[in-house]
Amino acid sequence: MTRPTVPTLLSAAAAVLALLAGCATAPGGGTITFRPTDTGIWALDYATALRLLAIGVVPEHAARYHFEPDPIVTAAYQILQDAGVALVEPSNVELVAAATPDLIIGESGTDTELVARLEQLAPVLIVDGMKPLAAQLVELGTATGHAQQATQLTERLETLLAEMKRRVTASEHAGATVSVISACGAGAFCTYGTDRGFGPILSELGFRRPPSQSGRGNEFGFSSISPEELSRQTADVVIDLQGSVAFGGTSPLDDPLLDVSGSVTGRVDFNAWYGTGPLHTVWVLHDLDAVLFGDGASATAEDGPALWATVIGAA
To answer: What is d(CA 77, CA 90) in angstroms, rounded to the nearest whole number?
Structure first.
């Protein structure tokens, strides 16, 4: 089977819809008006389904991940199934039509041709995954009538971030540089900018990034580099994103061109760090705690239930 390209894995074409006061903007420039609803929802990806679940909305269906699942995806599947969400084949318009949803919700990167077909079935809301999580939760809360729950969740996550920031500020890691890289196939590597997933979290905690990672990256938040450029990715803390993104490539932490002899290093789940969502945020904070203050063991799928309990305030 032919492997998808790295850009395909990281994201597809940019989305063309956005929420504005209960209206979705259609590709032709018109609007699709819908009433807020928290029932009859079809989620186009696991991360959207988790965001909805975190604000008290249970989607009826959620599409599975297109590729081999990373640990956070495996954990998400179990969380969603335990909540009664049916996990279904992705991008199957016939399945969506048979379910007759009231609202279809996904995130940026959803194929525009698929969106156009789905619009014939129900209103479609695509949330920009590059926006801050708080803004994404506002959109979802508005669309589902769960604005108060979205605000409460944001406040809970901000409290967790503030607690970690106090710990970092009081430690030897205050103001440290953090480099985030991954293998992206044989002999290829990717670096990650400041806006995607974990980026705002590192900024909030007072960490700095190497000069080559101080921008946003490309439209999907990453940049491809050659092995010769690995020497520019060293930092006080070096994080390797592992899993589906690597395509079997060698970890940059094991490449002699990257000097990590004076660095704290960690190997973490790509999807957990690259994605944006409440579980992603708690997962990243768990990993940073382990790398900076613990035994370095990043979260696994088995840690999912405990991390989810923290998300919903049940821990």
So the answer is: 14
